[in-house]
Amino acid sequence: MSAPNQSNSNPPSFLLTGIPDLEVSHVWISIPFCITYVVALLGNSLVLLAVVLDRNLHEPMFCFIAMLAAIDLIFSTAVVPKMLGVLWLDSREIGFGACFSQMFFTHTSTAAESGVLLAMSLDRYVAICHPLRYSTVLTVPRAIGAGLLALARGVGVMIPLMCLLTGLPYCSSRVIPHSYCEYMAVAGLACGDTAPSHRYGLGMATLLVGTDWAFITFSYCSILRAVLRLPSHRPRLKALGTCGSHLFIILIFYIGGLLSMYLQMFTLGLAPHVQVLLADSYLAVPPMLNPLVYGIKVKQIQEGIRKLLGQLAGPRSSQAA
């Protein structure tokens, strides 16, 4: 993404404060964020490599899981390393272009992940409710096309918002009261009229989330209805457990994202550090949980990861011998 045109009123860089009012505890606060990032990095990398390298996993469902892992890697890496730099090393400065690039990748990844979660719910709906049509309705090329469409949708939504934001003068302050370039925190530093960008951002976020959530709800309600009709008790419990864990992750993703956005717009009397911690947790927790629920709990991906680890350990053991 090219750097935005800067006027004389725009600062060459911004300063991130980290967690407002909790500066003395930055090092301790950073520990859980570091752990979640390492787990997310390791888990998503293993899931992604297992799906890409194992031909037995080249199926639509596993393609969606690999897409989710790739998005989570970009999503968390766009923010968490810089956040840890602020909390650990007091490396608060971030360039003007780098700040808007971070914002672009963060929110584009969020929109793309919502699209992939929608595609995964429809995949499960067809697999459970219309199993005889699954192989004809959902193919690997169509799964890849759905993933590319979700990415294109995220990029298409974010480009106008970036144009609105980068076209504003930033002359009131260069201090962002946040640990990353969060949209509302950066827009609050603008001297111009931010109403158009606020209306666009809020409207598009509500539209995307509302549409995706409606289809996801329909898919899982239909799946639940089909599962409850199963005659055998054990398959019913297994399906309910799988759907329950999926819905838990989906709820964390959507509720966390909406809370993070709306609390930045309407503070509701919450302390600034509470708002920032909620937003930071939203960036760190779902990428850590997704590979555990969507990837490592799936038996085929477990086997793929074992093969991958065996291949990695094989050359080392032969060299040691």
Decide which structural class fits the backbone: mainly alpha
Reading the helices and strands in chain order gives EHHHEHHHEHHHHH
SS element count, helices = 11
Give a quick account of the main beta sheet: strands, pairing sense, barrel closure: 3 strands, mixed
Portion of residues in helices?
Answer: over 70%
Low-confidence stretches: 1-8
Number of domains: 1
Distance between the termini: 48 Å
Average per-residue pLDDT, rounded, comes to 83
Strand tally is 3
Strand content: under 5%
CATH topology: Rhopdopsin 7-helix transmembrane proteins
CATH class category label: Mainly Alpha
Shape summary: globular
Q: CATH H level: which superfamily?
A: Rhodopsin 7-helix transmembrane proteins
> Measured on Cα atoms, how large is the radius of gyration?
21 Å
**Spatial strand arrangement across the major sheet:** 2-1-3
Which CATH-level-2 architecture?
Answer: Up-down Bundle
InterPro entries: GPCR_Rhodpsn, GPCR_Rhodpsn_7TM, Olfact_rcpt, OR51/52/56-like
Transmembrane segments: 27-53, 60-80, 100-122, 143-168, 202-227, 239-263
Function: Odorant receptor.
Domain G-protein coupled receptors family 1 profile: 43-294
